Amino acid sequence: MLPDASSQEKLVLENQNLAYAIANKLTQSSPAEFDDLAQVGLIGLIKAARNFDAEKGRFRAYAGAKIRGEILHYLRDKHYIVRFPRRIKPEPITSLDVPVGDGNIFLVDTLRDRHEDSKYLDLYLAIAKLEPREREVIELQFLKGMALPAIARAKGFTAWRKSKSGLQNLRQFLS
Fold first, then answer.
1. In CATH, what number does 5-77 get?
2. Statement: residue 85 has pLDDT above 70
3. Nearest Cα to 2, choosing from 44, 59, 45?
4. Can you state the percent helix, strand and coil of the chain, rounding each to 5?
C-alpha cells in the first residue's frame, strides 16, 4: 500500500540525512558540488517516499538505492561519469593467408560464402517460384526497404495484397 501525503512527508523528513550522506560520499569521487548532489538526492528521496510500498520491505534500503540511482543518473547526464565497457582487451589479428592443416589449404579458403548456405539457397529458390508481381513487391519491400504505399504508387497496383500473398506462398514453399 502506497503511503499518503503526511506519511510521505514524515519519511522524507526522517531520512534526509541518508540523502546527505550518499551525496557526500559521491561528491568525493566526482567534480560535482555537494549542494547539487544533495538536491538531486532529496529528489530521489521524495520519489522513493512517493513510490514506497511498506509491504515489500524496509524504506531505508529502498530509499538508499533510489537516492544513489538518482544522483548517478544526474552525474551521467552532466557528463561527470563516463562509462567504459568492462572488458576491453585487444584481440589478436589473424591473417587469412595462414596455412591450415598440412599447409595446402589457407584459412581464407575455409571461409564459407553466405550464398552457399542452404538457407539462402532455399529462400532464393522459393522467391524465384513466386508470381512476377509478388516477387517484385517482396524484393522491393525487403531488399530495397521500400514501404508498401510507395511500391503501390510506383507500380500502379495494390502492393499490400501482393505482399501478403507472396509471403503466404513463401511460407508454403519453405515449409
1. 1.10.1740.10
2. no
3. 59
4. 65, 0, 30
CA dihedral 16, 18, 20, 22 (to 10 degrees): -150
Distance, CA of 82 to CA of 136 (rounded, Å): 48
Q: 88: which residues sit within 8 A by CB, 6+ positions away?
A: none
Read off the pLDDT of residues 119-139 as tens digits, 9 standing for 90 and up: 777 777 888 888 898 988 888
Domain boundaries, the chain: 5-77, 114-174
Architecture of the domain spanning 114-174: Orthogonal Bundle (1.10)
Q: Is the dihedral of CA 123, 127, 128, 130 positive or negative?
A: positive
Distance between CA atoms of residues 108 and 97, nearest Å: 6
User: What are the beta bridge partners of residue 106?
Assistant: 99
Judge contact between 50 and 7, C-beta under 8 A: no
pLDDT at 71 over 90: yes
Q: Whose grid coordinates read 521500400?
A: 146
- Using an 8 Å Cβ cutoff, are 44 and 71 in contact? yes
* Whole-number Cα distances in Å, 36 to 11, 31, 155: 21, 11, 60
